[in-house]
Structure formats: structure tokens, C-alpha cells
Amino acid sequence: MATTTTQDARNTTSYITFRLGDEHFAVDVRHVREVLELSIVTRLPLAPAHLRGVVNVRGSAVSVVDLRSKFGLPRVADTLQSRVIVVEFELDGEACVLGGLADAVHEVVELDAADIHAPPTTGMRWKPGLIRGISRRGEQFLIILDTDQLFTSDDLLTGNGAGDASTVAAAAP
Prior knowledge:
A hairpin with a 2-residue loop joins strand 9 and strand 10 (about 140-145). The protein starts with 11 loop residues before the first strand and ends with a helix. The protein has one domain (about 10-170): CATH 2.40.50.180. It is mainly beta. The radius of gyration is 16 Å and the shape is globular. It has 4 helices and 10 strands, in the order E-E-E-E-E-H-E-E-E-E-E-H-H-H. It has helices at about 65-70, 145-150, 155-160, 165-170; strands spanning about 10-20, 25-30, 30-35, 50-55, 60-65, 85-90, 95-100, 105-110, 130-135, 140-145.
């Protein structure tokens, strides 16, 4: 899957959209390396509950975060539509690669910056810093995630005291 972002005079950005339960999310494609079918995930000892384990991506072990668990959604069985979104981001000044397990990946969409609004300040189920904004796609809201905040928060690295930063860092190439 292409990882380029198109920005034209209207100030549009490309986002890859995915689903967790009934919620629809998007991440900037500049952070997305590829989308993989779910394969065998090897569990890591003492890892946080939302760190599903590692998968083999062309000979490298890549950590996989269960995004449903990360967002406090109930765990469901994996399906044929389950996908791992492999993203690149910066952690403490170093490039990292990590996979996010989604219920389904839909499409790449172009969103104009003017159509992205600040998330509401009340009634939020998730930490406000994780969400860059909200947009509409037809009748549904699209929650646009801040990839850097999502994958660099302290609970990603340590969970509830289980595991440590070296566990994740060792698993990510």
C-alpha cells in the first residue's frame, strides 16, 4: 500500500481508515508503512495486555498493539477482515515500527484540513491527546488519531507495571 500523502492547494491530506467495533478511525498515511493480513502473533512474556505480541514482517519482529484493548473496547475474536496496520513513528528521537491490530481496514481517503474539527472537550472516552480531530464521512464520524501520541504514551511501553520499555524496543526494529 502506498505511503505517500497528497497535499494540494486545498490543503488535503490522505488518511487510511479502519474500524474498531462500530467506531471509525483514521491515521495519516505518511505514518503507514503497510497493511497486513493477520498472521501468527507470538505473545511476549510480561507485556501489557494491549500488546498482543510480535509478528514477522519480512524477517523482522514487529510488535502488535491490540487497538481495541488500547481503547478499552471489549476483545473480540479475530476475523478474516482483521488487519495489522504497520506504522512508523518516532520514539525518543529514534525511528520505530509498530503494528496496530484493527477489526477491518477500509480505504485511503483525502480530507481537507477545513473539514477536520477539534474533538469535543466533554464526554470523551479516550485521552484527548490521542485524537487529532474529528471529520464526517457521510453519516459517520471519523476519529483522526495522532499516531505519535498513540504509540508513545507511557502505558504503551509499560502497561500496568508489566513489562518495560526495553520489551517493546527490543521487539520493534
